Amino acid sequence: MKNKSFVKKNLSFCIFAVLAVLIILVAIFAPVVTGGVDPSAAVLKDALQAPGGAHIFGTDKLGRDIFTRVIYGARTSMTAAFSVVLIIFALGTVLGVLSGYFGGWVDAVIMRIADMMVSFPGMVFAMAIAGILGASVKNAVIAVALVSWTKYARLARSLVLKIRNRDYVAAAVVTGSKTPYILTKYMVPNVIPTLVITAATDIGGMMLELAGLSFLGFGAKAPAPEWGLMLNEGRPFVQSAPWMMIYPGAAIFVVVVVFNLLGDALRDVLDVRDE
User: Fold this and answer.
1) 34, CA 20 to 30 Å: which among 59, 91, 242, 271?
2) pLDDT digit string, tens, across residues 214-244
3) What angle do CA 151, 157, 158 make, to 5 degrees?
């Protein structure tokens, strides 16, 4: 009965959670979904075939099956996006909690670094970092993470500042509780729900940024099946073979919308309110 009540009360969250799980399962079981077709297998005689028949999404300029590459691209794009979110979530939470709790020079140093990072346009700064490190998915993840952690740090800091002077925290200090215990017992649990919601809504945004870097040549390199790179490869054929851009673009759109709406629904489930 409780499960039915939860589903009925949070129908939107359940729907988008199921869709998100399905997307993740498709990425995990890409070889099964595609029938074991190699996403990098080039068959030049099948180049630029329109959707239909043996190739439901058509083929690209090298005769590679676009459906297969889109499905495998989910692996690359989603793994990269989840990696970025995990990195900035962990880094931003730790630095934000330390900054808010200790204050003083610790707060000044961390926040000045954060100010320096946000003083540059995020995408431009990420392009510069990725350009220095070299084009690859790994370096694109590092570049986006380096320019995106500041939001989490600032949010965690503001939440810690709200509870740092609460009576129960003061009581813990007076009774001799160690700093690590106070941080893990009182500070972190109070910031996690809000940051989890932020992370859920950021998955789509991070995916767009990573796809943008790949599209501009600063991310995945051929022949990797990655949605942003596939858009770049299809750009010269936008009139003669538009399916080369339509299907990767649709995949990005669907996944971003699902995870953005999942984040919004998660906010309602956790019902985070300022106290």
Assistant:
1) 242
2) 998 888 888 888 999 999 999 999 888 899 9
3) 90
CB 199 within 8 A of CB 90: no
Rounded to an integer, what is the distance from CA 92 to the centroid of its chain?
14
In angstroms, how far is CA 176 from the centroid of its own chain? Answer: 40
- Token pair 């001799």: residue: 176
Q: Are 91 and 177 in contact (CB under 8 A)?
A: no
Provide the greatest CA pair distance for the chain.
77
Asked if residue 218 lies in contact with residue 127, where contact means CB atoms within 8 angstroms, the answer is yes
Query: Phi first, then psi: what are they for 54, rounded to 5°?
Result: -75, -15
Q: Which residues does 77 contact at the CB level (< 8 Å), separation at least 6? A: 207, 210, 211, 226, 227, 228, 251, 252, 255
Distance (Å, whole) CA 198 – CA 193: 9
